[in-house]
Each structure stands twice: as C-alpha cells, then as structure tokens.
C-alpha cells in the first residue's frame, strides 16, 4: 500500500468508525428511554411544557435526493408520536398551543461529524394549532427561550417544513380577530400557472359584478408584471371562516406541501381569496426564504365599497371612495420593522373612474410611508365627492359610516378622518387627463402632488385645466390640530364662459372669461366647518357674459336665480362685467365691492354672507341705464339662509337715476381688482377694464366733491 493511501486511511478511517459507532448506537438504542430527558430539556428551553406522549422510534432510509456518499449511506429517520406543546399559564382558550399526531424527520449522518444536525425536511402530520392573543398583547406564539449559559458545540440546520391535513384557530382579542382554518390535501397536484389563470378570471368576474362591467375590462388591461412562474405545485387546499374587527370573514385558497426555510430557489406557492366585510382580497404567487430575507411575489386583486376600508387590514391611510377594484403585481421584502412593498403596473376602477400606476409602501422609519405615481384617463367628479365629504347619504349609509347632512344646511358636514393621518406619511403624484361632471361642465387635466407628513396634508400644486382656462392652487390641512387647521390659495385665469356653459346659447359666441384669486385660512373638521371659520379674501371678475333666471336654476344657485328673476324676469341679460371683492373674517364674508354692469343697468350688492350660520344679509340696488327700465327698480333685500333664501322688495321710493349702484361703487376698492384684468388668449379687449376705470373715476370724483373746501392760508 502506498504512502498516500496509508495517510488517507488514517484520516478517513476514524471518521468512518465514528459514524459506524453512531449508526449502531442509534439503531440499537431504545429511544423511548430518552423521552423524559427530551421532554424536560425542550420544556426548559421554550419555557412551557413539551411532551412526546406516544412512541419515539428510529428507522433507516436512504436519501435518494442526496449526492455523493450521503446517497449510499442510510439516514436515521426519527418519528415522535402524539406531541404536545402547552399554552402559557395566562391562555384561557385551550390547554395546548399545538398538538401533532406525528413529527418525522431525517438526519444527514455525515454532518454529525462536525457537530451539525442537518434536517432536510421536518414533516408535521395532523397538526392542530391554537393561536391566542389577549387584550394586553400577550401572544402564545411568542416563546420565552432560556438563555444559553455557554455556547453549544452543535448547530441545527433545518431546511424545510412539510405538513399534512390539519387545523389552525386564531383568537386575537387585541386585533378583534377570530378565525378557524382547515387544511386538506388536494386530489391532484395543480400547476402554478393553472391556478393563476383561474384566479385571474374569478377576480375579474367578481370585480365586474361589484363595480360595474367596465371594471372587468380595466383589470384585463393590467400591466404585464406578474409573479415569477414556478415548477412547484399546489397540493393542499384550505378553508377559513370567522370574524375580523366585527365583520364576517371567510376565505379559501391553496398552498404547496413543503415550505423551504432557506432556499431562495424553492419558492412556496400560495393562493388566497378572502372576503372581510365587503372587502375582497385575492392573491396568487410565491413566498421565498421566510426565515431570513423573506420575499413575496404575488398577483394581487383588491375590491370593496371604499378604499378607506383597507385601513384595518393593511395600515394604509386611504381616502373614502366609491366602490373600487384593482389588480397589480405585488412584491415584498419582509423584514422585522422595515418591510418594503411594491404594487407595480396596477390598474383599477373607482366608481366610474379608471386608475393606474405604481405604489411603494415602506414600514421603516418613524412611520410607514406610501409613495408613487397614479394616473387616470377619466376621473368623474362624483367619484371625488367622498374626499370632500360631499357624497350622498345613501353612499355613506351603504359604507356604514354615514354622518347625516342636516336638512337646513347646504355646506357638507361629513368629517375628515384626521385621526388616521398620523399613522403614515405619503408622497404621491396624481394626474388625470379628463375630469367629468356631466356633459355640460368639462374639467380637464388635473394634476397634484400629495405630501403627508406628521399628520399634515399638502396638495401642492393642485391644478386643473378648467373650461379652457387654468386653476392653480395650494392646499394645506393640519390634522394634528383640534380642530383641523386649513389654508388655501387659489388663482383662476382665462376660464372661458362658452366652455363653462356650453349648453347656454347666449354664451356660445362669447369671448368672456372669469379670472379670480382667493386666499383663506380656516379651522374645522369638515368642509362646512372650514368655510364657516374662514378668514381672508376672495376676488372675482367676469366679462362679456350673459345670465338668466333659468341658467342659475340649472346651476343650483337658488339665491341668484331669485334675484335675477325679480330684476329682469325670465329673459337673458347681457353682462358687460361682474366684479366682486369679498373680505372674510371667521366665516363672515362682507362685500367690499360687488357690481354687475349689464346692458340695462348697473347693479350694486352690499352686505354679508355668514357661512358659519349660512345666513344672508344683502342689499341689491339696481340703477337703470338711459331710457331702459328694469322689471323692478326698487332696492331688494336678501335675507334667510342659503337653503331657504328670502328675497323681497325693500320699502321706500323707487331709485332715481342719480342713486343706486354708482353710489356704492364710490367707496369700493376698485384698484384691488385691476390685477385680475389680463388680455385674453384671443386678443379680445376685456370690458371689465373699462367698467372698473369708470368706477374708479366715479370714486375719485365723489371723493373730491365730498372733501371740504380748504381755506387759503392767512397772509401776515
């Protein structure tokens, strides 16, 4: 025998001898004698009773999937019958945390030489697991492990867990969740792609029934992003029922048979279709490496009556919306305290509006953060109504969160949910190609950037292409204050009257525009409360328009239509210029200037509108031009409320030509409105420039007449 062979024999021989001794010891030992020791040591390690109450035995099997010498050498397979793990003393639902008919695992013999216990798969037969968490947050799945007094020479290497039919119960008092889950083997293994196709069809069909036929087509156009296909098959089905925060919960799904704990190239297939209340969550995909950098790769469908209903399920602070359905590709890296979720290439339907984009949700940092970009080709105003508390009582009652609108109030009282704003931050850009409020009022190309941090919401910019013009604004709402504080700055330019009122024949050839500015601060938890406490100013100019009682009725302006009806009857009146400058203090809007220059008369309006009480206190003073006469030439009063205005004739004589509107304009701050006059896009002159100059001249003349004469200086 050569020298090299002798050296190899001296090295390998003792190792083989040691393995042989171990194998003989394992094969001949009565392992039931070890049960008391094993039970005691495991109980001490996990801090609660552990027991192998049945037989503990070993049998020998070759591992066909192993390579090299391990494929030839028989492996010991340990089998423990009737294993129980008790609950902690505080648990009241069940005596045991887990009970298993059998635990079975094989140990690789060669790694034992280097003190490593390598277990390819731990099989659990008929597991019955009862999960419990009390109202104080104690959970029976948290084990208090005994501290190591000294490092162990042995290391455990568990590669995967396999399971059989079984049941799982969850009673979570802290989250108000109660579920019962039963797991059964399928009659045949089902390929991943077959389940993905079936779930896609089911989810889109359900979305069509819940949101409307258009949702089915929108979801079918969802992006190409889909979970990575896998050769792993679905081998078990599960059914669940119970309750989640008071809502009925039920669901079903499928899983694979072996969960790889470490191998990133062995994804575990999962599928679920769960309904909680009226929210439906469906998914198909894989879970990879759950013990380390756990990864999810899913096709995800969401639907329900309002996106706000997802908050208890996901922790996402989303707005109230009409019924919705979305489909997209969700990937996630799951780390304790710092998980990362990406919902890519999703499409959805919200009411009658479409929605698409990419979102990212991170749980690291002081608060979770949602960021991304959303787009919509068609966004209906009706679908925006819940965001400002203007949705109907029927819609709110359907969601179960109705705040009844008082019968005598016009301004919305539906509160903002500011209590959720500090639960997360946000940085989301949104744009819509076209916004629609019926066929007669087009609003186009909305764009905004939503930023929310520390409970403060910013929309900057919040911009619309509106009736051929542009509305630019910035909005801030501070949800950390009680009540909420708000501020808005708004600038409207070149809003075309013929596009604003396309069905009103006298406007079709008009070159008139609306230009305006507003700057307000307020506090309150609803739109009505904010307007009722607002302070600031509002300025508005309209030139070359027309108005009628019928037009104002159609627009829902019941105060204006009564005034116009009293003055002009039901005929159409051409307006050369309408100018208003309002000062607001704690919800009381007072006219500094409010003048309508028509072809027949100049109409001056003075007084106040109290948005806190929604009460009106206005004087309307018309002055006829030349020989033309109004239907009514006496001053009017406007009293009552926005809901039920009272318009009548003031007692006293008719207004003479020398009185009326011009007298009001004399003291008005005409110069403040001059910056709103801008040359139109069609290079048409703005008639408001002429009207305001005339009013300013009248004011200057009146001021000179009212000024007392000065005495000449005495000559000494």
UniProtKB/TrEMBL annotation:
Any one annotated GO CC term: plasma membrane
All residue ranges annotated as the AsmA domain in the record: 1-592
Database matches in Pfam families: AsmA
Parts of the chain that traverse the membrane: 7-29
Keyword Membrane carried by entry: yes
Transmembrane recorded as keyword: yes
InterPro entries: AsmA, AsmA-related
Region listing for Disordered, in residue ranges: 392-411
Alphabetized UniProt keyword annotations: Membrane, Transmembrane, Transmembrane helix
GO biological process: regulation of protein targeting to membrane
PANTHER family: ASMA FAMILY PROTEIN YHJG, DUF748 DOMAIN-CONTAINING PROTEIN
Official protein name in the record: AsmA family protein
Species of provenance: Dyella soli
């Amino acid at each position: 025998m050569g020298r090299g062979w002798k050296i190899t024999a001296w090295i390998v021989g003792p190792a083989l001898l040691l393995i042989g001794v171990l194998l003989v010891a394992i094969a001949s030992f009565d392992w039931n004698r070890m049960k008391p020791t094993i039970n005691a040591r495991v109980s001490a390690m996990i801090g609660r009773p552990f027991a192998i109450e049945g037989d503990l035995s070993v049998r020998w099997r070759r591992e066909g999937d192993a390579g090299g010498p391990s494929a030839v050498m028989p492996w010991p397979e340990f089998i423990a019958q009737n294993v129980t793990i008790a609950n902690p003393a505080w648990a009241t639902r069940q005596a045991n945390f887990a009970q298993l008919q059998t635990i079975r695992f094989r140990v690789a013999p060669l790694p034992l030489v280097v003190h490593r216990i390598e277990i390819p798969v731990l099989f659990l037969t008929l597991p019955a697991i009862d999960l419990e968490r009390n109202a104080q947050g104690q959970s029976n799945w948290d084990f208090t492990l005994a501290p190591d007094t000294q490092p162990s020479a042995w290391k455990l290497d568990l590669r995967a867990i396999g399971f059989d039919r079984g049941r799982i119960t969850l009673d979570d008092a802290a989250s108000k969740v109660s579920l019962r889950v039963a797991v059964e083997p399928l009659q045949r293994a089902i390929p991943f792609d077959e389940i993905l196709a079936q779930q896609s069809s089911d989810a889109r069909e359900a979305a069509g029934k819940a949101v409307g036929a258009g949702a089915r087509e929108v979801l079918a156009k969802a992006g190409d992003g889909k979970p990575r296909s896998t050769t792993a098959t679905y081998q078990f089905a599960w059914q669940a029922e119970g309750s989640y925060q008071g809502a009925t919960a039920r669901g079903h799904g499928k899983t694979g048979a072996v969960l790889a704990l470490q191998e990133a190239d062995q994804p575990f297939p999962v599928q679920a279709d769960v309904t909680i209340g009226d929210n439906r969550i469906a998914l198909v995909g894989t879970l990879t490496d759950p013990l380390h950098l756990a990864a999810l790769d899913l096709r995800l469908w969401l639907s329900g009556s309002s996106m706000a209903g997802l908050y208890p399920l996901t922790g996402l602070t989303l707005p109230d919306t009409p019924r919705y359905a979305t489909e997209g590709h969700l990937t996630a890296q799951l780390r304790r305290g710092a998980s990362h979720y990406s919902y890519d290439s999703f499409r959805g339907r919200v009411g009658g509006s479409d929605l698409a984009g990419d979102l990212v949700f991170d749980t690291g940092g002081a608060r979770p953060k949602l960021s991304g970009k959303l787009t919509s080709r068609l966004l209906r105003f009706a679908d925006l109504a819940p965001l400002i508390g203007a949705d109907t009582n029927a819609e709110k009652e359907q969601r179960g969160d109705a705040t009844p609108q008082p019968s005598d109030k016009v301004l919305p009282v539906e509160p903002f949910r500011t209590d959720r704003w500090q639960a997360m931050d946000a940085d989301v850009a949104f744009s819509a190609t076209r916004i629609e409020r019926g066929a007669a009022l087009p609003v186009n190309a909305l764009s905004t950037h939503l930023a929310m941090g520390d409970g403060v919401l910013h929309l900057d910019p919040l911009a619309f292409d509106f009736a051929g013009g542009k509305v630019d604004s910035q909005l801030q709402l501070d949800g950390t204050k009680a009540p909420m504080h708000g501020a808005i700055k708004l600038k409207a330019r070149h809003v075309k009257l013929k596009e604003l009122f396309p069905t009103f024949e006298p406007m079709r050839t008009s070159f008139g525009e609306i230009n305006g500015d507003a700057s307000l601060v307020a506090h309150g938890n609803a739109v009505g409360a904010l307007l009722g406490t607002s302070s600031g100013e509002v300025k508005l100019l309209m030139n070359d328009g027309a108005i009628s009682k019928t037009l104002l009725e159609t627009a829902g302006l019941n105060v204006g239509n009564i005034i116009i009806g009293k003055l002009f009857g039901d005929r159409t009146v051409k307006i050369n210029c309408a100018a208003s400058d309002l000062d607001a203090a704690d919800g009381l809007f007072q006219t500094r200037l409010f003048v309508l220059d028509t072809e027949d008369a100049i109409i001056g309006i003075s007084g106040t509108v109290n948005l806190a009480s929604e009460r009106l206190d206005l004087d309307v003073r018309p002055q006829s031009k030349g020989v033309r006469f109004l239907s009514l030439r006496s001053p009017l009063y406007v009293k009552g409320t926005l809901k039920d205005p009272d318009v009548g004739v003031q007692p006293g004589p008719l207004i003479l030509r020398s009185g009326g509107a011009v007298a009001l304009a004399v003291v008005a701050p005409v110069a403040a409105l001059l910056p709103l006059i801008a040359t139109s896009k069609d290079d048409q002159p703005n008639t408001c420039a002429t009207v305001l100059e005339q009013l300013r001249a009248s004011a200057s003349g009146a001021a000179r007449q009212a000024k007392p004469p000065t005495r000449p200086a005495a000559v000494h």
